[in-house]
Amino acid sequence: MTKIQLLIIVKIEKLGEARFASDIGMDGRTSATPGLFENIINHIITKMTESSKDRDFVEYVVKQIVSNPDAVKVERKIDEMGVLITLDVDPSDMGMVIGREGATAKALRTLLRIIGAKNNARVNLKINEPEGSERKAPEPKSIDDVVGDL
Fold first, then answer.
1. Does the structure show a pLDDT above 90 at 145?
2. Partners of 127 in beta bridges
3. Are residues 17 and 61 in the same domain?
């Protein structure tokens, strides 16, 4: 049994899932059964997939602060890095979602981390910039302008 397998068993036991580990023939003291690691990973992924409280939270909060709540779209994806919540809003509502100097987006991300910690998952928020957004791209500066600003 590898260190990773042991750490996952310990993590599962801490989560109150020791019964699952014993059901598949592992009590943490015996040798690993074939396919044990894959079974544990599949169980964890299934458990993470079933829990969408983080997605519902983002959708509820964002719909409350934007002018066009019907245009809010929230997607939830799970990969090896954790949970990724992707948010799409109307171009006119981007300012409300991001907030002054990014304060609202930062607050949403902080609250998502707390929800993720409660559910033993790493949760990240990606806010997609909509087509036709009003954000202006910065004008490129020449080397002379940059040196002149120093």
1. no
2. 87
3. no
